[in-house]
Design a protein that fits this description.
Growth Hormone, Chain: A; about 0% strand
């Protein structure tokens, strides 16, 4: 197997792998982001309420939260290549089937079919996510953050362009067209990947002879320092989901914008995320510790919430220029939290003594996807409850406080670790000085004996 170092050019095999990962990630993200903007209208025509089609859309996040850690845990048994190819194939088929939901009769049949499609789609996507991260860690060990940021950029591009491209196809041929086209692209990509993706064999008998070195979900969750990354996953996706849901009705609607400009401002956040994510990846690969990036990103996210909706007790108004600045900052911040969080989680798992193999990589990727899905699910289900009971201003303040909590506890850890290093250096220098004094006394005594 050829591994890529940070200072060596990629081989032909690695470029091919990178191309496949990018295409499959882009098409998979397209198939996911098509559902929220276009499904509600069809669901309402079938008699489904807003609560019901909200549950259908949220099924993907819930199943992702439950299934991805299991897939990650058993990834080496399942097979990295098998999980990637099969997951991509299943996702593509589910996307095609979703396009034909408009032809199902209204009522229970429509609802059950839609939920099943979303659930199976999430299982297939879980295999793609875990396998993609494992390929990244194994084939590009010297630049994991760069390659992960590349796949994140593909996701952001899909979120930015998906509704636009899907809307054009919708107007051209109807609801089914964008789902069928994107699903077929993903199916073709999965078939092509069979010929080019490497297969990994488990030749390491160390974990078989020593069961204690085998990583499990419980062991991974019991690493204290890895929870800085896990908390970052949850908070970043939760606050980002809350903002995405409330951006138009609570912030943009007051400016009386046309649908075009509303879509443009939504895309601004994803566009800033897409541009900033590769930069965060380069910085993370070059840094020994990425926790300072988590702190900085969390503070940036908190600042964006202040600019979007000042504290309720402050008599400030938000202008369009401030909204544009805040959305840009928010996109940069969320990208930094996600990239630095994944790199930090993988490093903490390896520092804890677990092998740098597909099982560990799959477990980290599974927990990243699971906890991020949990944050999205909670934000979609709980944002309305918060706004109805606390008001939008206080709800935004709560999101701001969550980001400040991430920054505060991570900063506290870094401060304690820095103090520990200073104390260790002082102790070592004290020991060195004592040893030096003892050597000098010994030398003087020996010289006196000679005389």
């Amino acid at each position: 197997m050829v591994y890529a170092d940070d200072d060596k050019p990629f081989t032909h095999q690695q470029w091919v792998l990178l191309f496949i990962l990018g295409i499959v990630t882009l098409s998979a993200s397209f198939t996911i982001c098509l559902f929220p903007p276009f499904f509600p209208r069809v669901a309402e025509e079938k008699g489904a309420s807003a609560t019901l089609y909200g549950i259908i859309i949220g099924t993907n996040c819930l199943v992702c939260f439950l299934v991805t850690p299991i897939v990650g845990k058993h990834l080496q048994t399942i097979g990295v290549k098998f999980a990637f190819v099969t997951g991509s194939l299943v996702s593509g088929v589910c996307c095609v089937l979703a396009g034909f939901l408009e032809f199902f009769p209204p009522g229970l049949t429509f609802v059950v079919t839609a939920i099943c499609i979303r659930a199976i789609h999430a299982v297939g996507n879980a295999g793609v996510i875990c396998a993609t991260f494992t390929y990244t860690a194994l084939e590009f060990p010297g630049c994991v953050a760069k390659i992960f940021s590349f796949t994140r950029t593909m996701m952001n591009v899909a979120q930015l362009a998906g509704p636009i491209v899907g809307g054009a196809m919708y107007e051209l041929a109807g609801f089914y067209m964008p789902f069928v086209v994107m699903g077929i692209i993903q199916i073709i990509s999965s078939i092509i990947s069979i010929c080019y993706l490497p297969t990994y064999q488990d030749n390491d008998d160390s974990t078989k002879s020593d069961p204690k070195s085998k990583v499990t979900l419980t062991k991974m969750l019991s690493i204290p320092t890895i929870w800085f990354a896990f908390l970052t996953f949850i908070v970043s996706t939760m606050t980002n989901g809350f903002l995405s849901i409330n951006l138009e009705p609570k912030i943009l609607r007051r400016f009386d914008l046309s649908p075009f400009y509303v879509g443009l401002l939504f895309g601004l956040k994803d566009g800033a995320n897409s541009i900033a994510t590769p930069i965060w990846g380069c910085l993370s690969d070059r840094s020994k510790s990425v926790k300072p990036f988590i702190v900085f990103s969390a503070l940036l996210a908190a600042l964006s919430f202040v600019l979007l909706e000042p504290f309720p007790f402050l008599a400030l108004t938000t202008s369009m220029g401030t909204v544009i600045l805040a959305l840009t900052i928010n996109g940069v911040a969320i990208g930094g939290e996600q990239v630095a969080g994944v790199v930090d989680a993988l490093r903490e798992a390896v520092y804890a003594g677990y092998p740098d193999d597909p099982t560990t990589h799959g477990m980290v990727a599974g927990l990243w996807s699971s906890l991020s899905g949990a944050g999205r699910f909670v934000s979609r289900g709980g944002s309305g409850v918060l706004v109805d009971n606390l008001g939008f201003g206080y709800s935004m303040t709560l999101m701001l406080m969550l980001q400040l909590v991430v920054a505060a506890i991570t900063s506290l850890y870094l401060f304690c670790k820095c103090c520990q290093k200073v104390d260790s250096r002082s102790l070592n220098s004290s020991i060195d000085s004592e040893e030096g004094r003892a050597r000098r006394v010994s030398t003087i005594s020996n010289n006196m004996c000679v005389y």
